[in-house]
Amino acid sequence: MRFETLAIHAGERPDVTFGAVSTPIYQTSTFVFEDVGKTRGYDYSRTANPTRKVLEDTIAQLEGGKVGFAFATGMAAETTIIHLLKAGDHVISGDDVYGGTYRLFQNVMRDFGLEFTFLRMDSRQTIEEAIKPNTKMLWLETPSNPLLNIVDIEMVVDIAKKHKLMTVMDNTFATPYLLRPIEYGVDLVVHSTTKYLNGHCDVVGGAIVTSTDELIEKVQFLLNAMGTCASPFDCWLVLRGIQTLPVRMRQHEENAIAVANYLKDHPAVNRVFYPGLDSHPGHEIAKRQMKGFGGVVSFELKEGIEAVNSFLRRIKVFSLAESLGGVASLAEHPATMSHASMPEEHREKVGITDGVIRLSVGLENIDDLIDDLCQALEPA
Ligand SMILES: Cc1ncc(COP(=O)(O)O)c(C=O)c1O
Fold first, then answer.
1. 3-state secondary structure at position 131
2. Cα 289 to middle of ligand 1, angstroms
3. Which three-class secondary structure state does DSSP give residue 102?
C-alpha cells in the first residue's frame, strides 16, 4: 500500500473484536490472563497496549521500518535512545538540535558519564576529525530546529558505517511523508509526535522506529524497564492525526513557500531560513533527499530583540506559542523559548541570534497569514 493508504489503514483496523472503524482506546492498565502463564498477547499496558500497538505499527510502516515504539513525549523517546549507551561512550551531535535535546545531553547525560561533541554536520572532514575511540553514536536532526539546516544523510551514514557507529535521526520536522531516513541506512528514527504526526496541538508524544533486530530488542527492553511509553488515549490522538498527515503536509508546505518568499523580500528581514529557497545552503541536498521542504520557516529581523518583541506582540493569526506542526500557525522566539536551555554563547555560535523568529506555518488561508505578517512587521 502507498503512503496515504497506510496512514489510514496500517495496523489492526478495523478492530478484531467488534469491527469498530475508529481504533478503540484500550484504557486499561492490565489484561486478564486466559490461563496460568497464558495471555491474549497483552498483560500490562506499560509493556504493550493494543491501541499503542496500532500507532506503533502505523509509524513503523510509514517510516519503512520494521518495528515502532510510542512514547509519552519526544524527550521520553530520546531519553530511551540515549540509554542504549553507557558511561564513557561519546556521541557526536548536530550543534543546532532542538534545545531540549541539547539540554538532555549537556545537563543530564553528561552527569552519567556520557561525552558529547556538538558540531555542524555539513562536512565529512569535520565529522571524521571528531570521532574518537569511544565514539558510539551520531545524532542528526534535519531540517534542524530552528535554523532548518540540512544534513546530507547519505554522507553521515557512510561515515557511520565506516567507523561502526550507530546513527540516530530526529525526523520530527520532515515526517516520513517528506523523508524516510531508514531508506538511507539510519539505525534509529526518533520523533516528537507532538508536532506534525499529531498535527492538532492536543497531545505530547514521541516515537522510535528501527529495522535492526538487536535495537528492537534493546528499545523494547528500555521502554518497559524505564516506563517511557505513551498512554492509550494519547496514542489514539496521534493515530487520528496521522490519517491526514499527507494532505496536511502538502498544504503546510504550500503555505510555507509563500511565507518564505514574502519574508525574503521584506526590508525588515535580514535572512530567511527555509530549505525550499534556492539561496538556502542545503537546498540541493534537501531537494535530493526529501519529497518537499516542510512547513517551518525561520527568519532573522535586522533590528534585533526590540523588533522581535514588537512583531510577537502584534501577530493576530499567528499565536505566540512553543511547539509547531499543528493546523494553527504559531510563532516563537527560540532564544527565549524553545532554545532558552542552550547557553547564550552556544546559541550565538550556531547562529540562533536574538533576532531569529521561528514560524510554524499552519493551514489557514495564505492571504490571511501574509496579511498578518505584513501588519506585524510594520513597526520593525
Ligand atoms: C525536533 C524536536 N525533537 C524533539 C522534541 C521534543 O519533543 P517533545 O516536546 O514531544 O518532548 C522537539 C520539541 O519541540 C523537537 O522540536
1. coil
2. 22
3. helix
- For residue 323, the CA-to-ligand 1 centroid distance in Å is 8
Nearest CA to ligand 1 atom 12: 192
Burial code of 314-347, b = ≥16 C-beta within 10 A, e = fewer?
bbebbbeeeebbbbebbbbbbbebbbeebeeebb
Question: Which one-letter amino acid corresponds to residue 130?
Answer: A
pLDDT digits (tens, 9 = 90+) for 191-248: 999 999 999 999 999 999 999 999 999 999 999 999 999 999 999 999 999 999 999 9
Q: Is the pLDDT of residue 158 over 70?
A: yes
Cα(311)–Cα(179) distance, integer angstroms: 32
Q: Is the pLDDT of residue 168 over 90?
A: yes
Whole-angstrom Cα Rg for the chain: 21
**Cβ atoms of residues 149 and 173 within 8 Å:** no
From the list 89, 96, 98, 354, the catalytic residue is: 98
Closest C-alpha residue for ligand 1 atom 16: 98
With cut-offs at 50, 70 and 90, classify the pLDDT of residue 304. Answer: confident
> What grid cell was written down for 150?
540540512
Note if 177 is an active site residue: no
What's the whole-number average pLDDT of the chain? 97
Q: pTM of the entire structure?
A: 0.97
Relative to the CA of 78, which ligand 1 atom is closest?
A: 4
**Distance from residue 266's CA to the centre of ligand 1 (Å):** 30
Residues 82 and 93 sit within 8 Å (Cβ to Cβ): no
